[in-house]
Design brief:
By secondary structure, the protein is an all-alpha fold. It contains 12 helices and no strands.
Length: 202
């Protein structure tokens, strides 16, 4: 059980502590977390990659390729999730995009909170998406080095990459209506995940 595993493993305690602390930091000190793309990347690693490290730890997997893939996947999935949540965050008057990029491109926070797309917003979104895709591609490159039993471990890359592709098709405009219509997209994604799990591919 998870409680037993955590009680018996210092590694599990460490990763759980990292996840919790990162969540607390985002809730209590968001300005510090979103200061730069790098600090957001670190937050994604602490939350998402720690979860994947826990999965590997629970399966007693210590293969370097798997651990490396988990790190890249965690950063990529975390950043993609942040982009996917831009619209929902805006409805709560929240903006969790990197402050340095927002300043560089003179992004108007008020327009983001009101749900307006703009060239400035698209540029910021593009740069975060590019960083996310880079990590997901790195995780995918390690797929072939994993034993067959571990290949499904990288399936979280699939929905993250699928969202980034959809985002690119609308020129990185996160408030586009097509991105909010998820019913059919979710069905297609479930079918894609089922097939790739069966085929052992990404």
């Amino acid at each position: 059980s998870l409680p037993g595993m955590v009680r018996d493993s210092r590694t599990c305690k460490y990763f759980l502590s990292r996840m919790v602390q990162a969540k607390v930091d985002m809730a209590e000190k968001p300005i510090k977390v979103v200061r730069t793309l790098e600090t957001l990347e670190q937050h994604a690693e602490q939350v998402h990659a720690s979860l994947y490290y826990l999965v590997l730890e629970s399966c007693e997997v210590t293969q370097p390729e798997a651990l490396d893939a988990a790190g890249h996947m965690g950063k990529g999935v975390g950043l993609a999730t942040l982009l996917r949540d831009v619209s929902e965050d805006a409805r709560k008057d929240k903006v969790y995009l990197p402050t340095d990029l927002c300043r560089k491109h003179k992004l108007n926070y008020g327009q983001v909170q009101q749900g307006y797309n703009s060239d400035e917003l698209s540029e910021v979104i593009f740069q975060v998406a590019a960083r996310a895709k880079g990590h997901l591609d790195e995780a995918k490159r390690r797929h072939g080095a994993l034993p067959s039993a571990l290949k499904p471990f990288l399936l979280p890359c699939v929905p993250a990459l699928e969202y980034l592709e959809r985002l690119e098709r609308v020129n990185f405009a996160p408030f586009t209506n097509d991105l909010q219509d998820t019913a059919l997209t979710d069905l297609r994604l479930k079918m894609t995940l089922a097939w790739r799990n069966f085929a052992g591919s990404l």
